[in-house]
Amino acid sequence: MRMMVISDIHGNLEALDRLIEHAAAQNVHRVLCLGDLVGYGPYPNECIERVRALRNCRCVCGNHDTAALWDTSPYGMREDAKETILWTMDQLTEDNKAYLAALPERLDLADMCFVHANPYNPKGWRYVMDRKYAMRSFGSAKFRLCCIGHSHRPLVITRNHLFSATIDPVKGDRNYDISDTKRRIFNCGSVGQPRDRDPRACYLIIDTTERQIRFHRVAYNIAKTIAAIKAAGLPEQLGHRLKKGL
How far apart are CA 200 and CA 243, in angstroms? Predict the structure, then answer.
């Protein structure tokens, strides 16, 4: 089986559509979405509907999804994030609100765990970016593989190491062998707002037959998204960040 794992779409329809086109050639059987379908970007309803239409797709909630429903307060967010969430609240259809409200906080499939931020306290929204929170994550469940998002940075984490899953623009996409019994956490990066200085959309595919995980980067029309951000009256710095991958 080949499972596509995506996260942090953040209302960026252009990035999501190009990524879906790219994934169509990858023989994917299943999709796992790790949340944050909305926030930052100008197309919250459209992105939710694209994800809902994906075949064999399951999704968990992210912090921006819950904030858009007032399940958590947007007033603790950075100013541009808060402003966009308040705008998103007014845009969402009732049907899409109901979809977000029904999303679970975590999915466990066989020996794999899928969650937005971390497996030990899914709605605490802690970033797994250092050894402290990595060890808490490993200690929280008996998963062999855990996939997360939230930080917008593709990462591979073991009990002893945490390192970026950097993809060279010349050498292309990158494979990781998972044929051994070592426990790992993979951050799949962000579809709609990467923050590792590579502005291309990012996702990964888990191949349970070949026992490999492959990270993919997909270029998209960033200028089109920036124009839509401006047209929606959203903070212009959101577009500047997309250009730089920050």
Answer: 9
